[in-house]
Specification:
Layout (H helix, E strand, L loop, with lengths): L12 H24 L9 H24 L6 H13 L2 H13 L3 H30 L3
């Protein structure tokens, strides 16, 4: 592509660096949660559930803050949203955990975890937006 380095769109380098740096921080935080709340094979994946719900709550807060409350720097959303919170939440591990529960002969726990995480994540995102709007006095 003419005018770009390695076929990259102009101006994307800083965003890529912001996402990567944030992703490292988010993934390290998720790993720490997994170490602190480790579960045996076939056990209930509490760390993954808590990480995903907390991450969704924070995503709701972040979206309100950067779209309705403050004029944030253009790299705030890629760094915090895609990077930190994208690296922190782990819906791929959630899917693996559902499979592991089912494979361990715990189909009821697998289905409860499957539906419960989805419902809790959506509710947490909604709550994050509502709390941020209330705290900021926004509608």
């Amino acid at each position: 592509m003419a005018g770009t380095a390695a076929g990259r769109a102009p101006g994307t380098g800083a965003a890529v660096v912001a996402v990567a740096a944030g992703g490292v921080l988010g993934a390290l935080a998720r790993h720490g949660a997994g170490v602190l709340l480790a579960h045996p094979p076939g056990g209930f994946p509490l760390a993954t559930l808590l990480v995903n719900v907390l991450g969704c709550l924070l995503i709701g807060v972040l979206v309100v803050l950067v779209t309705e409350v403050v004029a944030a720097h253009p790299l705030v959303r890629p760094f915090l949203g895609t990077g930190v919170l994208g690296g922190f939440t782990t819906f791929s591990t959630y899917a693996v955990d559902v499979h592991a529960l089912a494979a361990a002969g715990r189909p009821a726990a697998a289905l409860t975890y499957l539906a419960g995480t989805l419902g809790a994540a959506v509710a947490a995102t909604w709550a994050g937006t509502a709390l941020a709007r209330a705290a900021a006095g926004a509608r």
